[in-house]
Amino acid sequence: MSKTLQAIRGMNDVLPEQSPLWRYFEHKVAGVLDSYGYQQIRMPVVEFTELFRRSIGEVTDIVEKEMYTFDDRNGDSLTLRPEGTASCVRAVMEHGLINNGLVQKLWYTGPMFRHERPQKGRYRQFHQVGVEVFNLPGPDIDAELILMTWRLWHALGIADSVTLELNSLGTSESRAAYRAALVDYLSGHFEQLDEDSQRRLSSNPLRVLDSKDATTQAILVAAPRLEDYLDEDSRSHFAGVRARLDAAGVPYVLNNRLVRGLDYYSKTVFEWTTDKLGAQGTVCGGGRYDALVEQMGGKPTTGVGFAMGVERLLLMLETLEKVPAELQQQVDVYFCAFGEKAELAAVHWAERIRDAIPSLRLQVNAGGGSFKSQFKKADRSTAAYALILGEDELNNHSIGLKPLRNDTEQQTLALDDLTGYLDALFATATRSHA
Ligand code: HAM
């Protein structure tokens, strides 16, 4: 196939065999978010480029080199969203959802786009589930967000394999004082810094703390520490977050190098990381952004949120073998019909079954076929039972029900009892697709 007729590098199809796992994940996430009373918001995937420049920050990797930006037919510069916070902030401002201190607890999910070098766990189109909360300034909500993710990790069975890293970046005033001290210190070691860090020293010095370069890291050991520059408000806020995590028994490590890659953060920042995925080990990240709304032209409004990478979490479920076995079963009942009369009757009865048991996954054999070929298809469909309708059964107003996954004998049911019988049979079965 010619290259231009293939998917774009780093942008993946989710194939039919993978989508049950996506739906399972989405179902779990929505369940947890619902249980904490969060409401879903859906934003467009394209926004004016200016929105991301203003919010994420001019001197960030995302804005400098990762955005999919193009001029539309009106000559407006548009960008495929690289993340959801900026769009969510725009939406709540635009629709007056945060006016007069109105509290909003929102979540969203969908594709994000970053022109990064693709590798395992890093894609150019990837999916996030994100949460944003407005007008709740206290540490209780920061802790709630973390507890919510913690609950999700438990629900997915991966809590033992993730670590919570926590830091406080303070207010912009305390960060400015720290930045000055850091620049002062690093300038004395300028020649030894890696090239990226040399560049960042003048544009975005806090990002030097993120450097993976061994020499730069060695220099950073003796660098001034952000926590020593925190103002009183940030300090007590951070203590409040930690006290709540301690009270709830959520383990964490303090990482005073954690600065995050987007510029809008203040006070609490956090990341959930894992060592099960290789280089792309951050499965979720977020923090507080109390100055962002004002910076985008709104009234002072506090904000806090996070986003998790869906592909990375699904990779984790696969790596840790936490994919529930029942996801492999896509069909409950496969309806085999033999002969023209039986095929017509099957259409009628399949629809009656669907009327009576909407949650039952029923597949009707298509395209006829011999006894052998229909059973082969029934078996491949993953169904637990086959319904068997032929000339003989029709004459007796009956139908055969054959278990496909164990040695139990086939039974014959009166057609009039069929829906009632299936309903009872599947009522007790826990169906994850519900
Ligand atoms: P972020 O750290 O840039 O934060 O992204 C959040 C998560 O998205 C990452 O932890 C990772 O799991 C996933 N992710 C990021 N880039 C990729 C990629 N190229 N391929 C696969 N997964 C990826 C944000 O986006 C902020 N908006 C989070 C936030 C919300 N902060 C406050 N509110």
Please explain how this structure is put together:
This protein has helices at residues 19-35, 49-56, 61-66, 85-94, 139-156, 172-187, 195-203, 214-220, 232-248, 292-295, 310-319, 340-356, 371-380, 391-395, 418-427, and strands at 39-40, 46-48, 68-71, 77-80, 104-113, 125-134, 163-168, 253-254, 266-273, 282-288, 303-309, 333-337, 362-364, 385-389, 398-403, 411-414. The protein is elongated, with a radius of gyration of 28 Å. It folds into two domains: 3-171 and 231-319, 2-Layer Sandwich (BirA Bifunctional Protein, domain 2), CATH 3.30.930.10; 330-426, Rossmann fold (3-Layer(aba) Sandwich). The strands form three sheets. Strands 1-5-6-11-10-9-7-8 form an eight-stranded mixed β-sheet, sandwiched between helices. A five-stranded mixed β-sheet has the order 13-12-14-15-16, sandwiched between helices. Strands 2-4-3 form a three-stranded antiparallel β-sheet. Mean pLDDT is 95; it is low at 430-434. Strand 9 and strand 10 form a beta hairpin. It contains 15 helices and 16 strands. The chain has 434 residues and is α+β, with helices and mostly antiparallel strands. Helix 1 (19-35) runs antiparallel to helix 5 (139-156) and helix 5 (139-156) runs parallel beside helix 9 (232-248). Bound molecules: histidyl-adenosine monophosphate. Histidyl-adenosine monophosphate is lined by residues 83-85, 114, 116, 122-123, 126, 128, 130, 132, 261-262, 282-287, 305-309, 311-312.
Bound molecules: histidyl-adenosine monophosphate
Quickly give the structural class: alpha+beta
Query: Could you give the distance between the termini?
Result: 39 Å
CATH class of the largest domain: Alpha Beta
The CATH level-2 architecture of the largest domain is identified as 2-Layer Sandwich
Contiguous uncertain segments of 5+ residues: 430-434
Q: Find the CATH superfamily of the largest domain.
A: Bira Bifunctional Protein, Domain 2
